[in-house]
């Protein structure tokens, strides 16, 4: 329970009043210190107000009361509107009102050294004070101002309930001494508090510094570079983990020992090298920065030799004097190994680039004669003589299938090169899933029928109408590979494709497509190997493989018959493979964001499952135009005016006859400059003669890229409302060439050999 508050004041004797009046002090008024704001601010700076009793102050108050034989002694602090007691002997209160306080008079600038009231009841200034006329019945007051930091913050005062004679000189000096002791306590208390604050800050800073030192030490110790330090006498003071790992010399073994101990027991040929290193270290500890000197260290434990390239930085004290050196090294042998690895990688990269360039060149060189070969075979198969001669038709089909197989092998080799170099990229678009799956089935259904196999296709109704965002061409390529393998390695029974929905959300659709067969199966230890590039068994001869193929050529998908092999444990005559199909399929599935798994049992069959999570196509966006089904009837094409730009006479003859067979009107330009001239003449006549241009890329005089760019520039300059359609027709099949074609202004990219279904689909897109 808090002590009660009193409002009381103190009086002075007549002689004191006269002395006060002589100094300009006016009685019967409650004075306010002229610098009261600064005085109160100084008081608050000492943080004394509203604190607990403290024994040093209490002892002084008690000692003062006993020494002067008074019932009450106070350490009084004068605040804004109160006086608060830091120590109170004989008075059970902590504060009183300032307007009735005698201490207010004692702290005035003009107050006497000791403000003394001998009988307050007889003093007109204080006789009516309620603390004089009532409890605690104050009659005598003597107060000495407590001056701290130049401001009187309060008093040490003596109070009695009866009048007392004035203090003699000895007593006045003693009261002043008591007051000075209170001031000393105030300063000591402030210093103690400041010391606590500083000490707390010091502890905090010390903890932070220690944490930083530990962090720095851990950083140095765990650094991936060998770091060690020595003092002025070359005694090791630090030795990080990396040095220990490289040299097999633990830190606790060498720290505190001279670095020269490394020379002990070292081979004679290394001692001289070490002495050179030690001299370099000595220069560093003498204050010189030393860079890139070699240091051979040999472990006494394992005899391991490590060659370090070291840079030494002088370590200075606060006066800037060198006291040691910090050394950072590099494992020269490891660096040389890395450089050798990098050189090998560059060589490998250069070799791969040369290989890719070779494949691209070979692809181009092989596609050019294949274009003529397959083109002529297609024309021959369409002739009346072939239609009337069964044996001739069979022979021509076999020849065409052989050429198709060779084309597929070229395509697979290019895909493999692209996959290994990371250059094979997807071309995603919006499409409906099930029609794409059905087209892959339709392409090979006739082949299963020819072998007498049941071809079963089961589609989950939940997938009907589902439109997704992915690459339909690559998805079809994977499905064709899987179906082709299943048909090829199944002599009797069935091939089954099952497409089902395994998950569905607003953003994606989880799809599982499984292709299973009742074929020869694959041994367990070979099932993972079939996904490796080039793993194939039964590669008897190309002729044997050619005899097993029959591609109808009625759809764009069929122009690229799959070549993925089944790999049984034993020899399987007549079932060869290049060992690329399943490798390519798995890599494509990874690019599509899915997985490809295989399970098989010898003489029972094989099941390959494809799982994909495909993004749902955004509503409102149109689906790309789909090519016609392989089974759909082919209506007559509109008659278009085609400009064929080709420098090879044989290719000109083949392409011209294929186009004319489909009822097209064909003009020929032998190089890019002639093509530009033909277009300019057409625009000058206002006839806009050409509907489409088939543009070769590699030609003399002016290539296809330059010709296309010039045609597009001329069209812009003449504000042609409908620019002519330009299709690249090239033996180059690399993505970089395709990108270059589209960049210069071509509308589509066709590769040689030119197949009738592909050409027909393109022409239908113009209708």
Automatic annotation (TrEMBL):
<dbReference type="Pfam" id="PF00512">
    <property type="entry name" value="HisKA"/>
</dbReference>
<dbReference type="InterPro" id="IPR003661">
    <property type="entry name" value="HisK_dim/P_dom"/>
</dbReference>
<dbReference type="InterPro" id="IPR001789">
    <property type="entry name" value="Sig_transdc_resp-reg_receiver"/>
</dbReference>
<dbReference type="InterPro" id="IPR000700">
    <property type="entry name" value="PAS-assoc_C"/>
</dbReference>
<dbReference type="GO" id="GO:0000155">
    <property type="term" value="F:phosphorelay sensor kinase activity"/>
</dbReference>
<dbReference type="InterPro" id="IPR011006">
    <property type="entry name" value="CheY-like_superfamily"/>
</dbReference>
<keyword id="KW-0808">Transferase</keyword>
<feature type="region of interest" description="Disordered">
    <location>
        <begin position="551"/>
        <end position="574"/>
    </location>
</feature>
<dbReference type="InterPro" id="IPR000014">
    <property type="entry name" value="PAS"/>
</dbReference>
<dbReference type="Pfam" id="PF02518">
    <property type="entry name" value="HATPase_c"/>
</dbReference>
<dbReference type="InterPro" id="IPR003018">
    <property type="entry name" value="GAF"/>
</dbReference>
<dbReference type="Pfam" id="PF00989">
    <property type="entry name" value="PAS"/>
</dbReference>
<keyword id="KW-0418">Kinase</keyword>
<feature type="compositionally biased region" description="Low complexity">
    <location>
        <begin position="560"/>
        <end position="574"/>
    </location>
</feature>
<dbReference type="Pfam" id="PF01590">
    <property type="entry name" value="GAF"/>
</dbReference>
<dbReference type="InterPro" id="IPR013767">
    <property type="entry name" value="PAS_fold"/>
</dbReference>
<dbReference type="InterPro" id="IPR029016">
    <property type="entry name" value="GAF-like_dom_sf"/>
</dbReference>
<feature type="domain" description="Histidine kinase">
    <location>
        <begin position="361"/>
        <end position="616"/>
    </location>
</feature>
<dbReference type="InterPro" id="IPR036097">
    <property type="entry name" value="HisK_dim/P_sf"/>
</dbReference>
<dbReference type="InterPro" id="IPR003594">
    <property type="entry name" value="HATPase_dom"/>
</dbReference>
<feature type="domain" description="Response regulatory">
    <location>
        <begin position="641"/>
        <end position="767"/>
    </location>
</feature>
<dbReference type="InterPro" id="IPR004358">
    <property type="entry name" value="Sig_transdc_His_kin-like_C"/>
</dbReference>
<dbReference type="InterPro" id="IPR036890">
    <property type="entry name" value="HATPase_C_sf"/>
</dbReference>
<feature type="domain" description="PAS">
    <location>
        <begin position="212"/>
        <end position="288"/>
    </location>
</feature>
<feature type="domain" description="PAC">
    <location>
        <begin position="291"/>
        <end position="344"/>
    </location>
</feature>
<dbReference type="InterPro" id="IPR005467">
    <property type="entry name" value="His_kinase_dom"/>
</dbReference>
<dbReference type="Pfam" id="PF00072">
    <property type="entry name" value="Response_reg"/>
</dbReference>
<feature type="modified residue" description="4-aspartylphosphate">
    <location>
        <position position="696"/>
    </location>
</feature>
<protein>
    <recommendedName>
        <fullName>histidine kinase</fullName>
        <ecNumber>2.7.13.3</ecNumber>
    </recommendedName>
</protein>
<dbReference type="InterPro" id="IPR035965">
    <property type="entry name" value="PAS-like_dom_sf"/>
</dbReference>
<keyword id="KW-0597">Phosphoprotein</keyword>
<dbReference type="GO" id="GO:0006355">
    <property type="term" value="P:regulation of DNA-templated transcription"/>
</dbReference>
